[in-house]
Amino acid sequence: MEQEEEFDFERFKQEAIKGLYAGKPLNGDKGIFAPLLKHFLEAALAGELEAHLQEEKAAGKPNRKNGRTSKTVKSVSGEFELETSRDRTGSFEPVVLPKRQLIVTAELEEKIIHLYGLGLSTRDITKYVKEMYQMDISAATLSTITDKVIPAMNEWRSRPLESVYAFVYLDCMHYKVREGSSVVTRAVYNILGVSLSGTKELMGMYLSESEGAKFWLSVLTDLKSRGVEDILIACIDGLKGFPEAIGAIFPQAEIQTCVVHQIRSSLRYVAEKDKKAFMADLKPVYQAFNQEEGYEKLLQLDEKWGKKYPVPLQGWYNNWEHLSTFFKYDAAIRKVIYTTNIVEGFHRQVRKVTKTKGAFTSDTALLKLVYLVVQRVSEKWTMPLHNWRLTLSQLYIMFEDRLKIHLKNG
């Protein structure tokens, strides 16, 4: 059996006092406390290995010590070479300092992950750590630290969901990601739901090469597999085939196409000099008292502008079925569902963090950062939407049969 070298506390104390008088720092590069931390860690790891070998022996598994290994460890107490014994079978997994961990302070790792989640660059984080902890950290080490959120992210992305959601908003963001020597586009699909308690929740985050109804179908299928049985109203943009994709998985869901998206789409085809007058005539269409009045105003809009601008008018006719869903409800609910602004507001918060990133190094790097932003933003989603009790009572009248079972179970 190897003889562990005893730590000379008296010598350490004398060297530490001498170092203090010489102006050496307690922590940081060449810190006074580094030898003490090195000893504590090596002693703890030796004890863990001894216990592991005893367990192996009791279980009838042949195992023993098999030489020593070392790795450079960084800590707020300084940088040092940590020497530990290995086991022959390689089954020993230390707890106090895992095999691949190179930084000894959970607080520092949490701080690094927090800074990464705020969108700081690798250079800025490295500079911060150097200034605050007198520690040099490489880009590879930073990546290793931030990778620690991946298991939590994967668990969050596959977590069970509630059985019914009052409103669900579906939209996506586009980013650039490096793939080998080229840069490709990625679409991050986000599904933001409002539960029957009135609170917001990002139900899912998915990654694809581009936005399309076919991929949305797989997204909706995943939501169903995670426990979603019903969606009362789904709010979407004008993507072709989107309503059909939703209807295939949640056939009872009412679909509201975003009116704001339709307005923007219409104005792209209107000359700048006509936009103000066109908008003045378009407002009565979506601000009408009910669906019938809205359609009548649409006909009047067509009569005045249809010959000059047939394309935007045709867009309203083609999408009228889903553009006009919100007319069934009173002003409070109309305000919530006539646009996908809720999820777009979330996207704006994400982009505040990601806008400086340019092209991400990988799909995983992109998802890690978006996930961290989600966790921070969603901390504020604790209160229900404004006038939620009144909204829920109106939804109960409209969807009584579908809500009874869910409210009873809730």
Automatic annotation (TrEMBL):
It comes from the Bacteria. Keywords: DNA recombination, DNA-binding, Transposable element, Transposition. One of its GO terms (molecular function) is transposase activity. GO terms for biological process: DNA transposition. The keyword Glycosyltransferase does not apply. Required for the transposition of the insertion element. This is Mutator family transposase. It comes from Adhaeribacter aerolatus.
